Amino acid sequence: MALTNTIYNSPVFQQACNQFDLAADILGMDAGLRERTKRPRRCVVVSMPVRMDSGKVEIFEGYRVQHNLSTGPAKGGIRFHHEVTLGEVAALAMWMSWKCSLVGLPYGGAKGGVVVNTRELSQNELERLSRRYMQEITPFIGPNVDIPAPDVGTNEQVMAWMMDTYSNHKGHYDPGVITGKPIALGGSLGRREATGEGVAWFVKAYLEDLGIPPEKTTVVIQGFGNVGSEAALALYQWGAEVIGISDFTGGILNRKGIDLKAALAYVAQHKSLQGFPGGEPVSNEQLLETECTVLIPAALERVITEDNAGKLKCRLLAEGANGPTTNEADRILAERSDIELIPDVLCNSGGVIVSYFEWLQNLQNYYWTKGEVFDKLYRMLAKAKASVDETQKKYQCSRRTAALVLGISRVAEAKAKRGLFP
Ligand code: GLU
Fold first, then answer.
1. Is 111 a catalytic residue?
2. For the chain, is the Cβ count within 10 Å smaller at the N or the C terminus?
3. 83 and 165 share a domain?
4. Distance 180 CA to ligand 1 centre (A)
5. In a domain, 148, yes or no
6. What are the φ/ψ torsions at residue 314 (nearest 5 degrees)?
7. Are 173 and 224 within one domain?
């Protein structure tokens, strides 16, 4: 049932709702529980006046959507992007609920967003905006309420400023309020690599199931930010060849393999891949349709659509991004037995899992080695993969729906058991 009578209404929110309905149908969920589980619990919209370097004051808009608070404190990143909308943040918050539940984290789901193009801000302006956003949402978050983290357009430094702002409000150091922090401020070893490492772990595990060895694996990655670049490095180290990468300026193809270190150094210097000499320039559309073993969308939502789903030439589609595949594209891919899909809530769950480890370390003031972090991460990923594959067999559904059946059923059960208050 489409959920259109809501302020969240938007194509990406409908996409998340339609995915939800497929899983809820399999679960035979009754209408009341279905609505209660689907709808975001609450949202905050904030207007943030920020003094720019010119002396002028600009007003930015920001959001925090808490989709589910029934199974623990809400958890999810903060996105800084000029096209962020409330509906998009709500969809991303919903996916966080299912992701945390699927992999067994004691969290609900949330997401934040600020409408801003960070490329147009100086470091000082970015700091003032980050602090202002944290100040505005402080009444609604906390280590036991809602714990933000990085997402597209934010990083360790932004998390550090936000943690400092929150701690100043409380009057004491309180690192457990946010994850993805620098190591010096209670960040966890391995958090920066965790999402991309996790994506690579799933890619390797599914390729193993398919009997495809590293030396026969070519990889194309759309998006060369934190997730895409870490996944690229991990798969290269494993022995695969990364033949295509891209960012918002376009893509680079090189059938002989891209020099990833050179690409990262180029991006650090030029702020984008535009003009990178290590391959042939292509558009993002061409990149997605390149013949390869593994295609990893690792940027924004809705890039695999009804227009290109039939033209993909990969064996494995690994969703590093959240929501990269539209409902129409899902239907086309379901007919294509030549493509295996690793759905976002499973594929990129390594990030939030290590965020959970970071929060645990903060609460205990007891810090783990990188080996301990990755050992525990891989165990959780293996357990999640096995449960999704088993559920897929049981219900004979897509792997996405199987993952959502698991994620959604645990949240719905918790809500049903808690009952209604009052
Ligand atoms: N933003 C990341 C995600 O979409 C990480 C969230 C977190 O670590 O809380 O999963």
1. yes
2. C
3. yes
4. 9
5. yes
6. -110, 165
7. no
Q: How far apart are CA 304 and CA 319, in angstroms?
A: 10
Beta bridge partners of 219: 242, 294
pLDDT digit string (tens) for 114-145? 999 999 999 999 999 999 999 999 999 999 99
Residue of 95, 349, 355, 362 best suited for mutating to test ligand 1, as the one with most atoms within 8 Å of CB = 355
If you measure from the C-alpha of residue 323 to the centroid of ligand 1, how many angstroms do you get, rounded to a whole number?
13
Sign of CA dihedral 94, 96, 101, 106: negative
Q: Are 234 and 245 in contact (CB under 8 A)?
A: no
In a domain, 128, yes or no: yes
Q: For ligand 1, say whether the CB of 76 is within 6 Å of any of its atoms.
A: yes
pLDDT at 399: 98
Per-residue pLDDT averaged across 176-180, rounded? Answer: 98
Q: Which domain holds residue 322?
A: 192-342
Residue found by looking up tokens 């890039």 in the block: 303
Give dist(CA 267, CA 195) in Å, integer. Answer: 20
- pLDDT grade, residue 32 (50/70/90)? very high
Q: What is the pTM of this model?
A: 0.97
